[in-house]
Specification:
The protein is α/β, with parallel strands linked by helices. Helices cover about 35% and strands about 15% of the residues. It contains eleven helices and eleven strands. Strands 6-7-8-9-11-10 form a six-stranded mixed beta sheet. A hairpin with a 2-residue loop joins strand 8 and strand 9. Helix 5 runs parallel beside helix 7.
């Protein structure tokens, strides 16, 4: 595993760089990629982001200025915030075995790069990108704005338990560049469409409690998305809803991606290790936030998840 200075030196040695983001891109992978691209360009490098077909309206503005032309042929490939090659979008699969540097912060990171730099203690991959770019030169406002998106979104605007003193220090340094964080905070944390509110209302009306009411399951079937005519932007970060329910410490959000294919997102407290639960079902992530995908009808998929939680939490109440 590389040290931070070795990873920075590796980046400095690259040119004609293609940067990869993960499936269903969130603020952290998009912000990390955009900031890294801006940082490499500040060094005089040619760098682009591989297009990601699942961008939402909130993340796309930070991504699109750096999108690679169709005929770009990279000499070096870097992945950011990707724990496993299974999380690569379809158009990135061709690069799975030629990732020259993988930069990540997940406990479940699979070390698939030719070289790897991982810091599981980082609240966001954006923290790592900040430290790497600081080794390479001054942090400009162009780098700082997507970095703030990365850091703020992955720690819930500094409310999640993964937030550390270093997270706040990075955010403070980014603010000192003069970026407008109020616009970011309004977009990502204080704005909901009517369709989003309709999704949340339906999820709450059908939620189920288990494990002595400490585990809550909320579902977003395809039929619900169709009923309210919701877009991917409307459905962003729905996994945060269950974690706000008083008395629960294990929130399970089930999102149907295709008929009988469910994407699980877990948000947990110390009692339940979300990464270990999802690892039992082929996924992974962090101790307090993780995910996996299960192909099964709704009730069977839900049962598999509850069984995995029961195996991981010794005090799971099955009554």
């Amino acid at each position: 595993m590389l040290t931070i200075h070795q990873a920075a030196a590796r980046l400095r040695s690259f040119d004609n760089v293609l940067i990869l983001t993960h499936l269903r891109p969130d603020g952290d992978t998009v912000g990390s990629a955009a900031a890294l691209c801006a940082g490499l360009r500040a060094l005089g490098k040619t760098a682009y982001l591989l297009s990601n077909p699942e961008l939402t309206e909130t993340t796309a503005p930070y991504f699109r200025p750096y999108t690679a032309p169709h005929d770009f042929l990279p000499e070096a490939v870097v992945s950011v915030d990707i724990a496993s090659t299974s999380l690569l979008p379809e158009n990135a699969r061709a690069y799975a075995d030629r990732i020259d540097l993988a930069i990540d912060h997940h406990l479940s990171f699979e070390r698939f790069g030719r070289a790897n730099y991982v810091r599981p203690e980082a609240a966001a991959n954006g923290e790592i990108i900040y430290d790497l770019l600081a080794c390479l030169g001054p942090i400009t406002a162009e780098m700082a704005l997507p970095l703030y998106v990365a850091v703020a979104t992955d720690c819930g605007c500094f409310a999640y338990s993964n937030t550390t003193a270093h997270t706040h220090a990075v955010a403070a340094a980014l603010l000192q560049t003069g970026i407008d964080v109020q616009a970011v905070n309004k977009t990502f944390f204080r704005t909901k469409s009517r369709k989003r509110l309709a999704l949340e209302a339906a999820m709450l009306s059908s939620m189920e409690f288990f494990d002595g009411d400490r585990t809550v399951v909320l579902a977003v079937p395809l039929s619900l998305m169709e009923q309210v005519q919701a877009t991917e932007t409307d459905a962003e970060d729905l996994s945060t809803l269950g974690a706000q329910i008083q008395g629960t410490d294990c929130a399970v959000t089930m999102r149907e991606l295709r008929p009988d294919v469910w994407k699980f997102s877990l948000r947990t407290g110390p009692r339940v290790n979300a990464s270990r639960v999802c690892a039992l079902l082929g996924g992974g992530g962090h101790a307090a936030a993780a995910g996996c995908t299960v192909a099964a009808p709704f009730e069977e998929a839900k049962r598999q998840m509850l069984d995995a939680i029961a195996k991981t939490a010794p005090d799971f109440f099955a009554g």
